[in-house]
Amino acid sequence: MALERCRLLEILRRTSYLESDAPIYRLASGIDSKYYVDCKKGLSDPEARDCLATLIVEMLGHMPMDAVGGLELGAYPIATSVSDKIYRDTGKKIRVFVVRKDRKKHGSTSLIAGDTKPGDRVLIVDDVITSGNSAIQAIDTVRQAGLKVDHVVAMVDREESNGRKNIEAKGVRFHALFTLSDLINFDGLGDKSEGRKSDQKRTLRSQSSRVAATS
């Protein structure tokens, strides 16, 4: 998984990470910081989503679950990527849901959008954790709907405002692929060569496909 981890970290560092000498970035938690991470930019890249899903599925092993989701908007591409990865690899269907921040004023007023039912075992995912409030809101909402949640997975843990501690206080296990320090200190060493290897593999697959088509 070293290649996927390096590639995803490189994409996030290039597309989703900002820093400043002064704390000019207002975070969702309400604090100002010198560092800002917008994973939605990185997750617009299909390679990033593929690497992300591979890392999360590898991290969780064979953890039983019926659905995966989290608070809108950041959780949805993560959940979809994980669900698609599991289906491609095993044929097992893990449903995807999203937790709304507020109830709609039309149609269904449920805070959960997706095919879930009481008793489902669900995984909560999130993009960036600071105080943990978004993950906690998702946990509380799904539990009120009768779903069971024991694990939360985040892409980036900022390691501040007691995010991990606040989430684990809800009686769940918290996992993070990266920390803010990983992004701050990432220097790209090895990325170019690994990227070339990835490009070479794609070229070889393409050449093999052309050969097969003409034979």
Brief write-up:
The protein contains eight helices and ten strands. It has 215 residues and is of the alpha/beta class. A hairpin with a 5-residue loop joins β2 and β3.
Write the layout of secondary structure elements.
Blueprint (H helix, E strand, L loop, with lengths): L1 H14 L1 E3 L5 E2 L5 E2 L1 E3 L1 H4 L3 H15 L6 E5 L3 H16 L4 E5 L12 E3 L6 E9 L3 H12 L3 E10 L5 H6 L4 E7 H6 L5 H24 L1
Parallel strand pairs: 5-6, 5-8, 8-9, 9-10
Antiparallel strand pairs: 1-4, 2-3, 6-7
Structure, explained:
With 215 residues, the protein is an alpha/beta fold. It has a domain at 47-179: 3-Layer(aba) Sandwich (Rossmann fold). 45% of the residues lie in helices and 23% in strands. The chain has a 6-stranded mixed β-sheet, with helices on both faces. The chain has a two-stranded antiparallel ribbon with strand order 1-4. Helix 5 links the parallel strand 8 and strand 9. It is globular, with a radius of gyration of 19 Å. The model is unreliable at 190-215 (pLDDT under 50).
CATH class of the domain at 47-179: Alpha Beta
> Helices and strands: which structural class?
alpha/beta
Mean pLDDT: 86
Number of strands: 10
Q: Which fold name fills CATH's third level, the topology of the domain at 47-179?
A: Rossmann fold
Q: Rg, please? A: 19 Å
CATH architecture field of the domain at 47-179: 3-Layer(aba) Sandwich
Low-confidence stretches: 190-215
